[in-house]
Amino acid sequence: MRHPSEPAIEVRNLKKSFRDVTALDGVTLALEPDRIYGLLGRNGAGKTTLMSILTGQGFPSSGEVLIHGTDPYENDGTLARICFIRESQKYPEDFTPAQAFKAAALFFAHWDQELADGLVADFALPLTRRIKKLSRGQLSAVGVIIGMASRAEITVFDEPYLGLDAVARQIFYDRLVEDFARHPRTIVLSSHLIDEIANLLEHVVVIDKGRILLDEDADSLRGSAVAVTGNREAVEGFIGGYRVLHRDALGSLASVTIQGRLGQTQRSMAAELGLELSPVPLQQLVVRTTMAAQAETPLENHQEALK
Amino acid sequence: MNRVIKVARMQLINKWTFLGIPMAILLGSTLLTFAIWAMLPPGAREGTLYSGSGQAVMWYFLALGIQSLTYTFPFSQAMSVSRRTFYLGTLGLFAAIAMAYSILYYLLGLVEKATGGWGFNGQLFALDWIAGNHPVIQVLFYFVAMVLLFMIGFWGATVYLRWKATGLLVAGIGVAALLLGVLAAVGLNDAWPQVGAWFAAMQVLGLSIVLGLVCVALAGGSYLTLRRATT
User: Which of B72, B75, B80 lies closest to A79 in CB terms?
Assistant: First the structure.
């Protein structure tokens, strides 16, 4: 059925404007099947808008969305392969979690009740309490359970962790990875807590002001930048020619994050100059990239904001 | 098609909303009417006793129209149901329930006549001007009345979903202005006698057809509104 080369999700020149806001400004993406994608960006960057359009819940002002080659909007055949739980997902006022799961079991062909039951126990979710009486964390747990147990080919989570405590979040990440290993599918996860999910992600998409800033494999992204620390003049001499993502200075010391891969020669050169090279965590990388993109001109003006 | 039925089943997961409450209202309002009739002093019991309590369920259907959309539509989106399928499943379910209640009303009307107005010489279901018609027309009238109230609620809820309070306000003022315009047109043309005659001449069947057309208009409007609504 599936062509190996066919993207699971393809988005072409997507634009979406609300009355006076441009939420998406020419987004083009191709997400491969059976991988875990992180959709990262600031509040209001366009994450939720993008996710609701690519799951057929919203529609673009212009551009095209293809899920396994077909437009999901008002297309039940395609929609049946998708599960998107919103961060502020609404449930029928009088439903209990048990009833919400019963409904999900009706619509999602691959629904796994056992998995759902296990997650209910993990999250200690009260099954027979009205959903409107649940705490924010419990409400998020309902969404997480539907999203995971539906085993939809395309599963999209919009900041699924709101109100979940650190233990519950770890349970979510662990179960997601376990279940993904047994039942690979295309997962898109949006999050602010980048470092928490960094190990989960196979591919990172960073969006800002409705534009894609970064669309890269997570592994190659991790090696794509390096922080150079040491004597200011030595640092300045060393980084010539590289794109600077961020500068910090303290007296005669400087720490500069540069974009680029360093070869063996450059590494030994840095050692000779007494410079320290350190990897940049994913979260730092995303923050630096976003901020560097926001500043057209040199970065000095933005140094304060970074601290 | 299968998913349309699943939407109906989803609406019925909480049996109380679509099934329990209407039945409780019907039973409750009918028994209360009987109790009131039984308490009347003998002097007040002469002649036929009329009650409008049969309408009680119908007004609940107005609320049900609002609820079935506002409660369930955003959830149906998370269940990856298209707007069209949600619409068909919800309206289809309500049409089936309305048909069942219409037939029940007709049957209760028969019981009412057979028992001498429930032993009180009362009229609750078999109101004279309806009960004199062919059974099919009676059922049709009840059905159209129930669907109309449901559709008003459902349509209002779709307008609210898409355009929020502003939309409802504009729609409300628009409908009011339209009615006022019709009244003004009739009044300015001194056409009230003709209008009165037209209403008098219109039998239950005619009324059912006119209200049925309003239902169709509301159903079409709801679909077009819902098609571009987001949660």
Answer: B80
